[in-house]
Design goal:
Elements lengths: L3 H8 L15 H11 L7 H21 L4 H23 L6
Helix pairs in contact: 2-3, 3-4
Length: about 100
């Protein structure tokens, strides 16, 4: 059963998104949510890091409820965490190292 947080996944960043029927959250649902939340190309570093961290959470949630795609969803979650860390590392180096 969907919780209050579940509906927020569809509502954040897409006010015209129609609420979906309550059902298990799948990898396809996660991909749709991540696609709708992607930042603008000129987004700040903090916005891009937050996007990748939120995306990892979305994929991890799908892994818990979509057993047929559990391993794939976990891999996507790991890749999103890795992307966030790469951005953090790239922007935490002193200017002369970049």
């Amino acid at each position: 059963m969907a919780s209050e947080n579940d509906s927020a996944l569809y509502q954040q960043g897409a006010p015209d998104t129609v609420r979906r029927p309550q059902r298990p959250f799948t990898l396809a649902d996660a991909e749709e949510v991540v696609w709708q939340r992607r930042p603008n190309p000129d987004a700040s570093t903090a916005e891009r890091i937050a996007f990748h961290r939120r995306s990892a959470e979305v994929y991890a949630r799908a892994a818990k409820t979509d057993q047929r795609h559990q391993h794939e969803a976990m891999q996507w979650a790991a890749m999103e965490i890795r992307k966030a860390r790469e951005i953090e590392e790239r922007h935490s180096r002193p200017a002369e190292e970049t």
